[in-house]
């Protein structure tokens, strides 16, 4: 059984951002399991906000690094694309602005802003956390490289590696 570490952004400016990051990592972990590997998803281990009160941040970083070093491979949570929702179209569907914002939040949108579009309708736009911007993911990549642990940017590449090493 090969262990695959799931690396992705965890921290964020709000709890909603953190929860969206956790959801995305867990979703990737489920795909890792479907591919026949044992996922190691540190996000799931520390999902409860009480963990921050039990031990300092450095404690959790040291622990997740120890988990990574036990793994056979690492997969990075992919970045999501920008979300663009036409407010007018959403309102025409009979839903109000509060439902639109709730939908964006459930989808893991971590930043929202309004801008006029080319036809003067207003659109709500959002951006997910990006793995490339995460200092934790950068550190995990460095640790993996030092130990010779292969790092995969896509689940397809991870599956191909698994097929070649079985």
Structural description of this entry:
With 166 residues, the protein is of the alpha/beta class. The protein folds into 2 domains: 3-78 and 130-164, 3-Layer(aba) Sandwich (Rossmann fold), CATH 3.40.50.10400; 83-127, no CATH class. 48% of the residues lie in helices and 18% in strands. It contains 8 helices and 7 strands. The strands form 2 sheets. The protein has a 4-stranded parallel beta sheet with strand order 2-1-3-7, sandwiched between helices. A 3-stranded antiparallel beta sheet has the order 4-6-5. α4 (57-69) packs parallel to α7 (135-147). It is globular and about 50 Å long. It starts with a strand and ends with a helix.
In short:
The protein is 48% helix and 18% strand. The chain has helices spanning 15-34, 42-45, 51-54, 57-69, 87-92, 97-106, 135-147, 155-164; strands at 3-7, 38-40, 73-76, 83-86, 111-116, 122-127, 151-152. The strands form two sheets. The protein has a four-stranded parallel β-sheet with strand order 2-1-3-7, sandwiched between helices. Strands 4-6-5 form a three-stranded antiparallel β-sheet.
What are the salient characteristics of this protein?
globular, 3-stranded antiparallel β-sheet, alpha/beta, Rossmann fold, 166 residues, 4-stranded parallel β-sheet, 8 helices, 2 domains
Chain-wise SSE layout:
Elements: E1 3-7, H1 15-34, E2 38-40, H2 42-45, H3 51-54, H4 57-69, E3 73-76, E4 83-86, H5 87-92, H6 97-106, E5 111-116, E6 122-127, H7 135-147, E7 151-152, H8 155-164
Parallel strand pairs: 1-2, 1-3, 3-7
Antiparallel strand pairs: 4-6, 5-6
């Amino acid at each position: 059984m090969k262990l695959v570490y799931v690396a992705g952004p965890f921290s964020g400016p709000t709890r909603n951002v953190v929860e969206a990051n956790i959801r995305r990592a867990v979703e990737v972990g489920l795909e890792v399991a479907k591919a026949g590997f044992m996922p190691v998803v540190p996000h799931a281990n520390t999902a409860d906000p009480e963990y921050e009160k039990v031990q300092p941040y450095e404690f959790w970083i040291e622990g997740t690094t120890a988990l990574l070093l036990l793994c056979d491979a690492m997969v990075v949570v992919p970045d999501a694309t920008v979300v663009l929702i036409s407010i007018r179209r959403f309102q025409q569907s009979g839903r109000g602005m509060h439902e639109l914002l709730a939908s964006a939040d459930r989808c893991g949108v971590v930043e929202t802003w309004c801008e006029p579009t080319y036809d003067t309708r207003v659109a709500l736009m959002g951006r997910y956390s990006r793995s490339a911007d995460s200092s934790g993911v950068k550190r995990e990549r460095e640790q993996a490289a030092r130990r010779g642990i292969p790092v995969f940017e896509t689940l397809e590449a991870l599956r191909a590696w698994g097929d070649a090493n079985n």
